[in-house]
Amino acid sequence: MPQGYIKKGIGGFYYVQCQDGQLLECKAKGIFRKRKISPVAGDWVTVEQEQGGNVIAEIHSRKNLFIRPPIANLDVLFVVASTVQPVPSTLVLDKLTAIAVDKGVQPVMVFTKDDLQSAQPLADIYRHAGVPVVIVNQQTGEGLDQIRQHIGGNLCAFCGNSGVGKSTLLNALVPELSQQTGSISHKLGRGRHTTREVEIFEAFGGRIADTPGFASLDTERACYISKENLQYAFPEFEPYIPQCRFTGCAHRAEKDCAVVHAVQEGEIEQSRYDSYAAMYDEVKSIKDWELH
Fold first, then answer.
1. Annotated binding residue at 164?
2. Is 281 annotated as a binding residue?
3. Is 75 annotated as a binding residue?
4. 140 among annotated binding-site residues
5. 244 annotated as ligand-binding
6. 229-262 residues labelled b (16+ CB within 10 A) or e (exposed)
7. In sequence order, what DSSP letters do the residues of the chain get, joined into one string?
8. Is 156 annotated among the ligand-binding residues?
9. Residue 285 marked ligand-binding
10. Is 166 annotated as a binding residue?
11. Does 163 carry a binding-site annotation?
12. pTM of the predicted model as reported, rounded to 2 decimal places
């Protein structure tokens, strides 16, 4: 039975890129609807023949799942931010990196417009936090090779607010992306879907998910991180957590908190801690049952 990954899903049809190179148009078995499971781009699946057509018979276990945009098994999330126009919010960037870490995805910070204002101060914050950083110069192409290296062997997506240069970056990396998107949609005869569906392309020994309108992850309920897990979404906190005086320390107002002490000593960046505190205060009163 053919196996492969879902390259794209449109209006109840799924296009599975098989390991033998063929692209199969499939429908999903009815059992998934009963189980309230929807196949999404990035899913690894097994395809069977049924009544003369192809059906997705099995969705293999997922490493992770994002609801908006709908994508599974993401390995790397490139968080694209510009140094100016628009000025980045470290809280937004830290929410995105935290969600990635919480879902087992490697965040990579990509800074654009370094020619207009130096990205170094921001780059230093994230390097200190252990997050890989790439500074891109769209004119010279500097930084593009580093991004290609992160793509190799991985399923990647790019997110960033409008105006940060995400489309320019993608076009510089994979010039055929916009052409491919248009031609595939034309071939499928569903051109009006081009701007709304996630589609996966192979490039640089890995895969890039083209996620139109992916300015930001749904940082609220779909990507909710519980207050207990939030500390682990900031990996630079981990060495200090066992040193806190109280088990279950929230790293907010407790006595002898090793994380707060590390912030005071400059071992953890103040802006990262401020983001943690803001996110903690947002979720501390939410009960798990309220999300379902």
1. yes
2. no
3. no
4. no
5. yes
6. ebbebbebbeebbeebeeeebbbeeeeebbbbeb
7. --EEEEEEEETTEEEEEETTS-EEEEEE-HHHHHTT----BT-EEEEEEETTEEEEEEEPPPS-EETTTTEES--EEEEEEESSSSPPPHHHHHHHHHHHHHTT-EEEEEEE-TTTS--HHHHHHHHHTT--EEE-BTTTTBTHHHHHHHHTTSEEEEE--TTSSHHHHHHHH-THHHHHHHHHHHHHT-GGGTTTS-EEEEETTEEEEE-TT-SS--TTTTT---HHHHGGGSGGGTTTGGGSSSTT--SSS-TT-HHHHHHHTTSS-HHHHHHHHHHHHHHTT--GGGG-
8. no
9. no
10. yes
11. yes
12. 0.89
Is 271 labelled a binding residue?
A: no
> What is the identity of the amino acid at 134?
V
Tens of pLDDT along the chain (292 residues)? Answer: 899 999 999 988 999 999 889 999 999 998 898 898 999 999 999 999 998 899 999 999 999 998 888 899 999 999 999 999 888 899 999 999 999 999 999 999 999 998 889 999 999 999 999 999 999 987 888 999 999 999 999 999 998 887 888 888 888 888 876 654 444 444 544 444 344 688 999 999 999 998 865 655 555 555 789 999 999 999 999 999 999 999 999 999 899 999 999 999 999 999 999 999 999 998 887 766 565 5
Per the annotation, does 162 bind a ligand? yes
